[in-house]
């Protein structure tokens, strides 16, 4: 009979190398790799890191990183995190992972941006209910993507004719202004300079004014810079530039892992907006995904209009929360009925 055991690691260094090998074996997305977590935790982490793992003998078969804070176990995610999921070789190993995680049920288990499709949500919800926790699930995000297995010209042919004509007109008119070059760098050379150039473009215009640019916050700037350095070491960083007479007028920070091209941050110089530089660079990236035989182009994030111009297909991501007794039920009231009801319930509980 195989010997199973559950481990709880308090530092990333204890298990990072093995986790990286495990993630490669499963083919998981970059956002569930230790390098991504390391960059995220350094910038946004709060509480204590807990990485729970299951072994079958000496073999790592399941793993999930969480943050423990004030009795809550939460996924280490925020709006800079495209997706999150426990890792396991199959549903039975995931079951052992969640059972070990909830051996002593926390006040609340909070998993955000979990794919709606797969065994992760139903398995976690079932075990939480077995542990007498109340479970609530809500869709947190729908992220557009393009399936890129097939013919690029055929894909363009399925887009509205007027839109494709507009894109061609953008390209022709921009070419009349000077030499147009699409450039892709993997960060092995001049990484800091390329990031500075790209982030300056990404932060121009409305993003800076709205406070959503990478450079708007020191923590955000640190995070994306560290992600880029890690990705460059892994060979998955792709820095895309659209240059006009060698001047960058559009930029995209992307990751490419052999299965998909992931769009993390994009921007363009608003002085050239009438030539559609952002659209032209997006088209170049999607065409690259088709011609490189990747499976998908992942826009990531919310279904913004400029993304839905290219596709109507979206991934659905869910936030799962499992509430324990006591304060956990007050948390549930806040989640389902609002903070006012929860505060009233807490006040009554203290009186009794």
Description:
The protein has 2 domains: 4-139 and 318-351, Aminopeptidase, CATH 3.40.630; 149-294, Aminopeptidase (3-Layer(aba) Sandwich). Helix content is 41%, strand content 28%. With 352 residues, the protein is of the alpha+beta class. A hairpin with a 2-residue loop joins strand 3 (59-69) and strand 4. Strands 1, 2, 3, 4, 5, 6, 7, 8, 9, 10, 11, 12 and 13 form a 13-stranded mixed β-sheet that branches. The chain is elongated. Helix 12 runs antiparallel to helix 13.
Index terms:
352 residues; alpha+beta; Aminopeptidase; 13-stranded mixed sheet; 13 helices; disordered C terminus
Shape: elongated
Strand content: 25-35%
Subunit organisation of the chains: single chain
Helix content, binned percent: 40-55%
Helix and strand topology:
Layout: E1 4-9, H1 16-26, H2 34-44, E2 48-56, E3 59-69, E4 72-74, E5 87-88, H3 91-101, E6 108-115, H4 120-130, E7 134-147, H5 152-158, H6 161-175, E8 180-185, H7 191-202, H8 206-210, H9 218-234, E9 237-244, E10 247-256, E11 260-268, H10 277-291, E12 296-298, H11 305-308, E13 314-323, H12 327-337, H13 339-351
Parallel strand pairs: 4-6, 11-12
Antiparallel strand pairs: 1-2, 2-3, 3-4, 3-5, 6-13, 7-12, 7-13, 8-9, 9-10, 10-11
Helix pairs in contact: 2-9, 3-4, 12-13
Brief summary of the model shown:
The protein has 352 residues and is an alpha+beta fold.
